[in-house]
Amino acid sequence: MDPSGLVRGHKSNLQLLKPVLRAYALGYLSSTTPKVISSFRCLRRKDLGYKEKLQEIVRALTCTIRLNSFPSFCAFLVGGSTISPIVLLRLCDLVARRLDSKANVFKSQSFVRFIRFTTAFLSSLLSLQLLNQKPINLQTTTRNVSDDAQSNGKAQDPREFAGRTMDLTLFTLTRAVDALVCLAWSTWYRRRKTQGRLTWAETVAPQLADAGAFAASSAIVMWAWFYLPERLPRSYGKWIGEIARVDSRLIEALRRARRGQFVYGKDTGQAPLLESMCRDYNWPLEWGNPAKTFPIPCQMVHMDCGPNCEFHAFMRFVRTLKVACATYIPLQLVFRFRALKSRQFVVRALTDALRSSAFLSAFVTLFYYSVCLARTRLGPKLFDQKTVTRQMWDSGLCVGAGCIMCGWSILVEKPRKRQELALFVAPRAAATVLPRVYPKKYQNREYATFATSAAILFTCLQERPNMIRGVFGKIANGVLK
Question: Cα(212)–Cα(59) distance, rounded to whole angstroms?
Fold first, then answer.
């Protein structure tokens, strides 16, 4: 037996296992790092001994080392999608040789693509089933539960429900749709350019597509934050609230107006809600009584910025800019620490941080100013108040105007950043529409959606890797490299 052949075969096997090992390592780090950081808090506790603190850290490091964990899911998914096609293609080639077949059907590009797609589909299907082996406990999943997941207010058997991997499925679906759209557009653009029929609109469309996707997704998320907060992850909703910086009583008044409880011109017992706000800001108590004052004065929306809508918008921009700069500038300097060797790199880091801060500030400003324009400045002047009443503006139309306009602040960002933000927000927008927990009899739909989307992504990564955009594309290509 040739020793050199054994060495080459050993190296070839290791090369095949590299993507699997990288996938497992990436899954392990992404799922373990937050737990390790949280476990470090116990080191400050004085009521725990050295042994208990060590056990807590070890538990955080080993809690994901099991078969139905996210790292194992990543390894099985990547392994089945990369190793299985090679094994099957070699087997087909061996069968063709044994049969002395001269047909090249097994070597055609369409057949290879079919094998890649099929193996990726089956690997994704089995991997997701592995990840969903652990049942859902509805007693701990109190948020985002669909009406079908409850019966007369009593939780049923947790094994009858699914939805644990809904976020992962929506993320994969969004990326797969983006890859298909990019592939279709690339083909269309190349054909039109070859024919010399490319128009100005077709040239500008790619630049506005990501901005439009982000604006639409942001509108859905912001609407959910106002009227369906239970459909957003708690941390995500909390972050939006910290950036918005609006009195919770005002938000509650708008929600009650939409539910028909806070009605202008009628005493429905809702006056105490905003009257307490009037006391805190030294405003007339009548402003908080919908039976006496309607609509809610803009000054209450502005809170401590006075009655002028433009000044309020300016102050919103300035205040948000300060907070954003305090966050983005240190992050940019930390992430580019190794590249900060010259003045040019420092200037670029500061410029990118200021651009991102301006985007976030413009997002907040456009939302609030659009609300003011809709409810007091332009809305009542453009539409007859008998057709579109004050109650209608404050029960959803003014918030809808803010939701529609705020996302267009993404145009401040660079095109590369627009696409990444659009692909980040889109799954969260979809999650507000779909139930996070649903009856298990519908789980096959999620399996089919995830498996198809993952198969599309793996096929694109192996044949057209440039179609997987953003940071995810770079990470995925690095894993499969």
Answer: 44
Sequential DSSP letters for 450-471: HHHHHHHHHHHHHH-GGGS-HH
Contacts of 71 (CB under 8 A, 6+ apart): 24, 25, 27, 28, 31, 64, 65
Q: What's the pLDDT at 155?
A: 44
pLDDT at 154 over 50: no
Which tokens sit at 262? 């806070």
On the question of pLDDT at 149 being above 60, the answer is no
Mean pLDDT of 359-379: 90
Burial class (CB in 10 A: 0-12, 13-18, 19+), 290: buried
Given a contact cutoff of 8 angstroms between Cβ atoms, the answer to whether 233 and 426 are in contact is no
- What phi and psi values does residue 151 have, to the nearest 5 degrees? -135, 110
| Residue 339, phi then psi, degrees to nearest 5 | -90, -5
Separation between Cα atoms, residue 388 and residue 378, nearest integer Å: 12
The CA radius of gyration of the chain, in Å to the nearest whole number, is: 28
Nearest Cα to Cα of residue 183 among 450, 471, 463, 427: 463
The whole-angstrom separation of Cα 30 and Cα 334 is 20
151 beta partners: 154
Q: Distance (Å, rounded) from C-alpha 47 to C-alpha 101? A: 75
Structure confidence at residue 117 as a pLDDT band (50, 70, 90): very high
pLDDT of residue 103: 56
* 161: helix, strand or coil: strand
Domain edges within the chain: 3-163+437-480, 234-428
Q: How far is 222 from 185, CA to CA, in rounded Å?
A: 30
Residue 42 neighbours by CB distance under 10 Å:
16
Q: Is the pLDDT of residue 173 over 90?
A: yes
DSSP annotation of 63 reads: T
Beta bridge partners of 154: 151
Phi/psi at 154 (5° precision): -115, 135
- Asked whether the bond before 295 is cis by omega within 30 degrees of 0, the reply is yes
Q: Are 259 and 273 in contact (CB under 8 A)?
A: no
How many residues are present in the chain? 481
Question: Which DSSP string corresponds to 355-412?
Answer: HHHHHHHHHHHHHHHHHHIIIIISHHHHS-TTTS-HHHIIIIIHHHHHHHHHGGGGGG
Token match 């299985």: residue?
Answer: 84
CA distance 61 to 38: 11
The token duo for 294 is 């309607």
Contact by Cβ (8 Å): 307, 298? yes
CB atoms within 10 A of CB 52: 11
Separation between Cα atoms, residue 37 and residue 14, nearest integer Å: 33
